[in-house]
Model the fold of this input.
Amino acid sequence: MVSNSDKILVAGATGGVGQLVVAKLLAKDLSVRALSRTKSKAESMFDRRVEIIEGDIRHANTLARVTNGVSYIICCTGTTAFPSLRWDFANLFQPANSPAAVDAEGVKNLVAAAPQDLKRFVFVSSCGVLRKDEFPYNILNAFGVLDAKLKGEEAIASAGLPYTIIRPARLIDGPYTSYDLNTLLRAKTDGQKAVKIASGDRFNGETSRIDVANACVEALFNDRTINRDFSIINSGDREHPTQWSELFAIL
Done:
């Protein structure tokens, strides 16, 4: 179980889920190291309350010092499912920031750089990775995003490290990329719908980014999530605060 002496690396820390993960970890007074391609962006977002190291999971040679001394890794990296400017088409036939580059090769690089005594590798994947031929996931996977996510999952599961794989459905709430840390910590859009989880890849629907971040952080405190993969969605009204220990008990 995570303690205040553990260093937690958040990859993709300035992204839609990653920045919420950082905020949730800081709310629990945990020690955070943020991996960002642009150090200045992370510094302004997190008000210098976290250790920031500039690096890029697409480039293995940037990761050795990033992972040195960390006890946990939470990987929230990703790119768009369909071709966009974010893919970086400097090379038309091999975009530098495609799902294959980020979610497959990038995650493999991060796994390879992880310390052998790592206590947990938490990975934000996607619903549909095991149902790529079914609607609507066959459309979502038209440019290989689910193929890439699954390759990332396989690299993690085969590495011999303790892991937790979280598969959200279509993401809602945010991203809060223009907000500062204090706004993130006050975000109240979670609490509107109940959280459901299930082992494997079983749900359709939508998932709050805030609840994905909550799941990433709460999983560190629950041994039932070790070497497990599960889907998470929001469904129905939330009548009571989410009891993560009860949800994780079904795993």
Q: What stands out?
A: The beta strands are 7-11, 31-36, 51-54, 72-75, 120-124, 163-168, 170-172, 193-199, 206-208, 228-237. The chain has a mean pLDDT of 91.
